[in-house]
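Supplementary Methods S3. Complex input for the guanosine-5'-triphosphate-bound model.
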Amino acid sequence: MPTHSTIKNLRVRCSVITPPGEGGIGVILLCGRGAAEVLGTCFEGTQRGAAGITPGRMAHGRIMQNGAAVDEVVVAHSAAQEAPVGETCYEVNCHGGAVAVKTVVECFRDGGAQVVPWRELVRPCGPARRLPLSSRSIRASALSSLPEAETRSAVKMLLHQGDGALSREIAAVTGGLKNGSDDAQERLWRLVRGAEAGLAMLDPPKVMLAGPPNAGKSTLLNTLLRRERVIVHHLPGTTRDVVKDRLAIGGMPFDIMDSAGIRSGIDALEAVAVDNTLRLMGEAGTIFFLFDIRDDPSVVLESSASLPPGEARILYVANKTDLLDAEAPEVDCAPLPHRAPVVCISAKKQEGIGKLEQFLLAPYADTLSLITAGGPAVFTRTQREILATALRLAEEGRRSAAAHLLTGSGAQDNVGQ
Ligand SMILES: Nc1nc2c(ncn2[C@@H]2O[C@H](COP(=O)(O)OP(=O)(O)OP(=O)(O)O)[C@@H](O)[C@H]2O)c(=O)[nH]1
Ligand SMILES: [Mg+2]
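Predicted complex, serialized as structure tokens:
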């Protein structure tokens, strides 16, 4: 029997491939050279053990943890040609309850398997994998990405790409590059530029609401989500944990995070919450930095000093304009770090919210309407990399090399579709 560390060296991976949540059945893939050994650590077959489940066969049995059965399962050994070369691959069908699935995964992990995201195990195989721009590969990627699409627009976008919108455009670009057509490079540039929107539809950009305590961050989160998601209170320091939720604007999903107000001289618990806020702020693509429009500038200056220096798009949001006697004054952001624009809103009265939504959509606005109307969209990083390299070649005047790269990546399959 191999030891735990030998199994680890055999890089056995497991992943749940059914959607999260309660369901009738949960399916876990267990793959790798030592998959039989990992299965053997916890599978008790009714008629045969793990070693007896030969390729193409199935076995019924129980998954055991600390001597007790945790679930009843049916294990299928994938036919050899479906598994990556040299690997054993089992499909373990267990009961679909979230706890059952989680416990079976735990048993495999304890047996030496590494838990990986499902996309690492479920990939188009064969020629499609080697030719990422072939119509077959694009279709396979689009369909296998459907479970990740969390907005209607993302689903529509993938279905259009599965139907050939991207393949046809790549074929037209490739043909144009070969025959010297003027607009081929322009069309290629549009594909590469629009990739950000296609990718963001499946991997929503992170937006952080940050700023001093009591600025109205939680109120703004509720207003953007149009429901009472988080507690709002007049006492500063209300929010401790970062709260994340999904927001869709014009069909584009965003992960929006409310956070603890940034300030110093606080108790140990709040200090942990602030540290957490600062860490997550570094991961956000967009930061709305809120402050009370009536705040003393020194308060705003102190907390804005913690804004990360990185690539994030920052928008200063002067909130609570409804509490001003007169029209909102011009807010001078010059002393604040980062050259960022400022908008005035009232989160409570839902005024000025459209400006925030426009700011979020701005990087995608051009391509979003095209994509939602069924146009071509680049939706994987590999597609973007190849197309960006082809564009660079075309810009250097090497049009036939660019066409060659696209053809070599599978684009020739698309011609005539
Ligand atoms: N008048 C008015 N009050 C607001 C507005 N936005 C928030 N408030 C009030 O300001 C107080 C603080 O709001 P929160 O949303 O909890 O502020 P926060 O930034 O999340 O505060 P912490 O979680 O403590 O960091 C509450 O009493 C809100 O009702 C606004 O636009 N106008
Ligand atoms: Mg709050």
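The first strand starts at residue 13 and ends at 16. The longest helix spans residues 184-202.
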